[in-house]
From TrEMBL:
<keyword id="KW-0449">Lipoprotein</keyword>
<keyword id="KW-0812">Transmembrane</keyword>
<dbReference type="InterPro" id="IPR003423">
    <property type="entry name" value="OMP_efflux"/>
</dbReference>
<feature type="coiled-coil region">
    <location>
        <begin position="236"/>
        <end position="270"/>
    </location>
</feature>
<dbReference type="Pfam" id="PF02321">
    <property type="entry name" value="OEP"/>
</dbReference>
<dbReference type="GO" id="GO:0005886">
    <property type="term" value="C:plasma membrane"/>
</dbReference>
<feature type="signal peptide">
    <location>
        <begin position="1"/>
        <end position="23"/>
    </location>
</feature>
<protein>
    <submittedName>
        <fullName>MdtP family multidrug efflux transporter outer membrane subunit</fullName>
    </submittedName>
</protein>
<keyword id="KW-0472">Membrane</keyword>
<dbReference type="InterPro" id="IPR010131">
    <property type="entry name" value="MdtP/NodT-like"/>
</dbReference>
<dbReference type="GO" id="GO:0015562">
    <property type="term" value="F:efflux transmembrane transporter activity"/>
</dbReference>
<comment type="similarity">
    <text>Belongs to the outer membrane factor (OMF) (TC 1.B.17) family.</text>
</comment>
<keyword id="KW-0564">Palmitate</keyword>
<keyword id="KW-0175">Coiled coil</keyword>
<keyword id="KW-0732">Signal</keyword>
<keyword id="KW-1134">Transmembrane beta strand</keyword>
Amino acid sequence: MKRPPRSLQACRWLVSFALPFFAACAIIHHDSPPAAMIAPQQIKLAGDIHLANEGWPSARWWEQYRDPQLDALIGLALAHAPTLAIARERVSQARAQVELIRAVSGLQMQARADADRERVSSHGFLSAYASKDPAIGADGPWYWAGLVGLDGHYDIDIWGKQRDLVRAAIGEQNARRAEAAQAELELAAGVAQLYYGIQTTYASLDLLRQLRDVRAFELDARSARHERGLEALTQTAEARAKLLAIDQQIASAEEQIVHAREALRALAGAGPDDLPAVAPAPLPAAAGSLPSTLSYELLARRPDLQAMRWLVQASFDRIDAAKAAFYPSFDITAFFGFNALQMRDLFLHSSQQINLIPGLSLPIFDGGRLNANLHGARTASNTLIEQYDQAVLDAVRDVAQSGSEIGDLDHRVHLQRERIDALSFASDSAEASYRTGLGDKISAMQAKAPVIEGRLELVQLSGDEIEAGIALTKALGGGYRSDDLPESLAGAKAR
């Protein structure tokens, strides 16, 4: 009977030697179930929160305000802001991590060349070469030994550990991409809020200067009456105090514009001369709308939630990789090249050397390392799930609060306009009385002050409404839409 090749005998011996240890390998002592993910019915708004318009924001949502200055500022910020540069570098770093893990899981080959000056031991494996024996080519004990060839190594990923690690790295890369989209959204929203804060202050300044003219006229009139002995000095002092209060408000508003411009410059990453001048422009109508339903659509529309979904997905893959570490691993190591004890013989055909070494590694006693690793992966995953659940609830809250605020501000703006109409009627009556000789000019000027003050309140309400609309756009994801969603939540729960 023909004997099998020695290599086959070695493989059989390796398998027969390893099989008794399979039953003694490290086992999973305990693994807690995954944390519960948020229920769909919690991703919705209360029935009393609604707006006149319905719909999700568009990708370039700021263009709905039809303001070229705002478009230019957001374009500048998206091109030069340091926060976006940082977010993009994180995406590149995550991509490099994916490539690194993929490379580790593939075939590894390297060229190898060694030159070794050694003295052969008289009692070692090569003891015959420790003395001079021309018959066997020994001229020891000193030799230049050489080796040159190719080393190869390949891990056979039977249990999918490396594939799980690659998927986890891809999940992190997708999360970083979503975080970059979130950074763009926050940047655009921040620029828009600062810009309309400046425009609101410009509009307030114009009205404050009108009010100052009224207070200055009143002070001059009171002073003239006091000089003629028609009024006490107290009324003149009160008029002067009102004028000084307006001057304080004007100075404060001008300082607010300077601070907002510098904040805008820092946010956009602009240099001292790179930020374009912000000229006064009319405040636009508030633009806020709510979708007819939120549900899972909000998860795809919010880049921050999408990033957390990908991180949760990556944590599941890490759990699978941690479980695969309990199973035996197989690899193959190979060498092809030349090996000679004498350098002059290195490249002879007879110096060829070929090694093919299949290997098996089986964890038996590890001091609890693998179980600790699995427990750490499960705990990290459950933490991410809890953070994700809270983020979803916070996102629904943000949408609800912004929508409710817009509805409330819209009502208050309507009431304020009615109030201004009533004050304007009183002011017009006082003006008419003055022109017909039935009243004095100071009374007519004083009647204008409440109208201007009412318009100041209206400007502030309008600015608040615009800011709330931008906040709602941000809460709804600002036009972001993910089409490459991770597996469904229902599938994720079972892992």
